[in-house]
Design goal:
The chain is an alpha+beta fold. It has 2 domains: 2-111, no CATH class; 138-248, Beta-Lactamase, CATH 3.30.450. The protein contains 6 helices and 6 strands; from the N terminus they run αααααββββββα. A hairpin with a 5-residue loop joins β2 and β3 (183-185). It starts with a helix and ends with a helix.
Length: 249
């Protein structure tokens, strides 16, 4: 809760700053209108818009762009202290400020999303390596390792619970996560983009060659999980690691 409040407060300040900074800059430029060209003022305002947009908040970038365009028009274009524009060049500058704000905001948001995806991939990799290390050291019993792998699969897949069941037979009503990361039920493909079933468990087979050694049963009860292809592949790799443990045992 405290983290959410802090983020909300930070976002509010970024948006307010994006709105106020162009007003302050344009008011200062207006006081030195005879010595500062509109081109110089426009460049500085673009930097202000970029700073707001670089926060990754789409609203902050657009607010800064709108504020820059409005106050540039009000203070620095004739007729002064009105929101009317007579010159075509001034219209172009105002529109340019708005376009730059929108573009930089989207670029910043895209960059943050890419960074977030990279962090998630790194987390998956670290989880797989940690599980592999536990398996290679053989410091835990197969039952304990099965629990560790189940917890890791639940984390990766975004489900509420995961448990391991030994054996080669499972209830045919279960949806099954196949080796190619597709979801099937009784041999028929199930659209996995709609999410995992919430009213029953999803089975992730643990296979050694053609032999099925058991299943990880995933429960998505509290909230429907929609694991990506990458998440499903990581879960399959984790199941393969468990197969290595059972095969050697």
């Amino acid at each position: 809760m405290a983290t959410t409040d802090w983020r909300g407060s930070r976002r509010a300040w970024v948006v307010v700053g994006g709105a106020v900074a162009p007003f302050v800059l344009c008011a200062i430029f207006a006081a030195f209108r005879d010595s500062i060209t509109t081109a110089t003022a426009a460049v500085v305002l673009v930097l202000a818009v970029v700073c707001a947009a670089a926060s990754g908040d789409r609203v902050a970038g657009l607010v800064a762009a709108l504020s820059s365009g409005a106050w540039f028009d009000f203070f620095l274009t004739e007729p002064y202290r009105t929101f009317a524009i007579d010159g075509a060049d001034d219209v172009e500058v105002t529109v340019l400020l708005l376009v730059i704000g929108a573009l930089v905001s989207e670029i910043a948001i895209w960059g943050r999303r890419q960074q977030g995806r990279a962090s998630v991939r790194e987390g998956y990799l670290q989880g797989v390596l940690a599980t592999a290390e536990s398996i290679s050291m053989r410091s835990e019993s197969p039952e304990r390792l099965a629990g560790l792998v189940a917890d890791r699969i639940a984390e990766v897949m975004g489900v509420s619970h995961c448990r391991f069941v030994a054996g080669s037979v499972h209830d045919g009503r279960y949806a099954v996560l196949e080796r190619d990361a597709s979801l099937t039920r009784n041999g028929h493909t199930v659209p996995v983009d709609r999410g995992l079933p919430t009213n029953e468990e999803t089975a992730l087979p643990v296979r050694a060659g053609s032999e099925t050694l058991g299943y990880f049963l995933l429960t998505s009860a509290s909230e429907q999980a929609r694991p990506s292809l990458e998440q499903r592949r990581v879960a399959i790799i984790l199941a393969d690691q468990m197969a290595a443990v059972l095969g050697s045992a």
